[in-house]
Amino acid sequence: MQKEKQNYKRFSVTMPAELYGELEQMAEDRGMDNRSMLIADLVKRELLKYQQQDRSRVMAGTLTLSYDASADNCANKLMAVRRDYLDEVISTFQVMLEDGKNLEIWLVQGEVDKLYTLLATALKCNLSVLGQITFADAILPPLRTNR
Asked: Do 48 and 135 contact (CB within 8 A), yes or no?
């Protein structure tokens, strides 16, 4: 199978010499062959942040939570949150850590605003809950149909 050739555009960037040096170092530290690869990666990351500003946009991502497993029935409260957001929580993975802590990773998809509400709801389960959401640059294929 022949690899599809991508369409590229070339442009010029002018920046202070010190910033250029830092960019060069960053590309080297990340093992990238050239600055173009690094700049494309940085632009993709910023575009992903920009897309999240549209709170009605559907995006996929991971919600990562850590908490004290013994604290105030926290695991059961989080299970109830997952049930309340059944359409958004696609899959979960739980790991027991040392010192009675748990780590949960939830694969999620839905409107950005609803996913942030999901995170806020999960964080309210207990004071020991720490969490964040990371969005992906693509969404999952359709998971449900009425056919």
From this structure: yes
pLDDT per residue as tens digits for the range 71-89: 878 899 999 999 999 999 9
CA 44 to chain centre: 13
Is 2 a residue whose pLDDT tops 60?
no
Radius of gyration of the chain from its Cα atoms, rounded to whole angstroms:
20
Helix/strand/coil for 73:
coil
Q: Nearest CA to 26 among 41, 11, 44, 47?
A: 41
CA atoms within 13 A on the CB side of 143: 13
1: three-class secondary structure by DSSP: coil
User: Letter for the amino acid at 43?
Assistant: V
Average pLDDT over residues 55-76: 91
Half-sphere exposure (CA, 13 Å, Cβ side) for 25? 6
**Mean pLDDT within 9-32:** 92
What's phi and psi for 101, nearest 5 deg? -95, 155
DSSP assignment of 8-54: ---------HHHHHHHHHHHHHTT-SSHHHHHHHHHHHHHHHHHTTS
Indicate yes or no: pTM above 0.70: yes
